[in-house]
Automatic annotation (TrEMBL):
Domain of life: Bacteria
UniProt keyword Ribosomal protein present: no
Keywords associated with the record: Heme, Iron, Metal-binding, Monooxygenase, Oxidoreductase
GO MF, one example: iron ion binding
Family: Belongs to the cytochrome P450 family.
SUPFAM superfamilies assigned: Cytochrome P450 (SSF48264)
TM regions (residue ranges): none
Biological source species: Streptomyces venezuelae
Protein name as catalogued: Cytochrome P450
InterPro entries documented for this protein: Cyt_P450, Cyt_P450_B, Cyt_P450_CS, Cyt_P450_sf
The keyword Iron appears for this protein: yes
Length: 399
């Protein structure tokens, strides 16, 4: 498996891509003052047990009010009854009617952009195609002009940093949370204008829905909470689709026998995408905080400890997956953790599945010789919490 990781130039910290296994499923990292969780069962427990673990890991950092305003309302950080309440109301935006519309719209946009690149011979899979499709669809979901989707790219800056959550040097002026929030100001300003407009004159879109959501105390979400919610789901609603598409192409290029299978039978596309999420998990790691004393992987962990849960490593756990380092598009069952697990399971997971499935159906139908242009190395996000090609970072050939 080192051949796969070294061929494409994945960072050394993505050890699971080289078939390496930690000595233990849960380890204490003295340098970074956090617990690191690698095993499938252990990661699943940390993600699923809301009585013992909290997604609001930021609570361990004693953030000031100014910093907290950037996270209040973020679905990924919410916990407890309020999280369930807001998630239930927002789920109406992803109704069967929306999914049906999504399928037709993604098909239309994919064919349109396939027409634009059909005579190029070589094009950038992300910036010329997938980014455009996913960006337009997400803009329409929000109810904002498609041209404003260019502002989504500021989120890429966060994924291109080496920053990771650690209790070392907490509270510093250039810490983890500050690095996450500073690049987002232009995006927040743009979204804020749309929130103001939709609050005054609601339409049939997600921002309008958010402006009408009621918290448990009966009050509406604040302007900052709505903005934070939108930014929080931007990864699932827009960035996840390009990441999964590019990662899948790397897998198909590396395992040509699997590529031949799916090209011959497009009904295997959904299974291909699930296996790509397992084998080359885009969201490589997440964080949790213990809210009581726990025992995990045979280790006793006290309350108020920071955990980094390695979804990518868990998806290669041989205790859960037979031959975990094989890329097998027919793998079934495939209970990967690529979209998370439990109460914080990715709210946009179905949207990502629909978009990526249709994108590949169009690509395979229109370009039977589609392949990675190996003369131009892919460019990856630098964040240790993500594994994937950044925008503009993958070229493909169709001639």
């Amino acid at each position: 498996m080192a051949d796969f990781a070294d061929r494409w130039g994945f960072a050394q910290d993505k050890f699971w891509l080289r078939g390496e296994r930690p000595a233990e499923t849960v380890e204490w990292n003295e340098e970074l003052l956090r617990w690191e969780v690698f095993g499938y069962a252990e990661v699943n427990e940390a993600l699923s047990n809301n009585d013992a673990y909290s997604a609001d890991s930021g609570k361990l950092f004693g953030l000031d009010e100014e910093t907290l305003k950037y996270f209040d309302g973020d679905l990924a950080q919410m916990t407890g009854p309020e999280h369930a309440n807001i998630r239930k109301q927002v789920s109406h935006a992803f109704s069967p009617r929306f999914i049906e519309h999504l399928e037709s719209r993604v098909l239309e946009l994919s064919n349109h952009h396939a027409d634009k690149v059909a005579n190029m011979g070589r094009f950038n899979l992300l910036s010329d195609f997938v980014d455009e499709v996913a960006g337009i669809v997400f803009s329409e979901l929000l109810g904002i002009p498609a041209d404003d989707r260019t502002m989504f790219k500021v989120v890429d800056q966060n994924m291109d940093q080496q920053a990771q959550m650690t209790l070392v040097d907490q509270g510093s002026e250039d810490g983890y949370f500050e690095k996450l929030t500073k690049p987002l100001e232009p995006l927040r300003e743009m979204l804020g204008k749309h929130v103001d407009a939709k609050t005054k004159d609601p339409k049939d879109d997600l921002i309008s829905l958010l402006s009408q959501v009621k918290k448990l105390d009966g009050t509406p979400m604040t302007r900052d909470q709505i903005i934070n919610f939108i930014i929080g789901i931007l990864g699932a609603g827009h960035l996840a689709t390009p990441l999964l598409c590019a990662n899948t192409m790397l897998c198909l290029e590396s395992f040509p026998e699997q590529y031949e299978l799916v090209k011959a039978d497009h009904s295997l596309i959904p299974g291909m995408l699930e296996e790509s999420m397992r084998f080359l998990t885009p969201g490589a790691a997440s964080y949790r905080a213990t809210i009581q004393d726990v025992e995990l992987g045979g280790k006793k962990i006290a309350k108020d400890q920071l955990l980094r849960v390695f979804l990518g490593a868990a998806n290669r756990d041989p205790r859960q997956f037979t031959n975990p380092d094989d890329f097998d598009i027919t793998r079934a069952p495939n209970p990967h953790l690529g979209f998370g697990r439990g109460a914080h399971y990715c709210v946009g997971g179905q949207m990502v599945r629909v978009e990526t499935r249709i994108v590949f159906e169009v690509l395979f139908n229109r370009f039977p010789k589609l392949r990675v242009d190996t003369d131009i190395p892919p460019l990856f996000f630098n964040s240790p919490d993500f594994t994937g090609v950044r925008s503009g970072g993958m070229w493909v050939r169709i001639d």
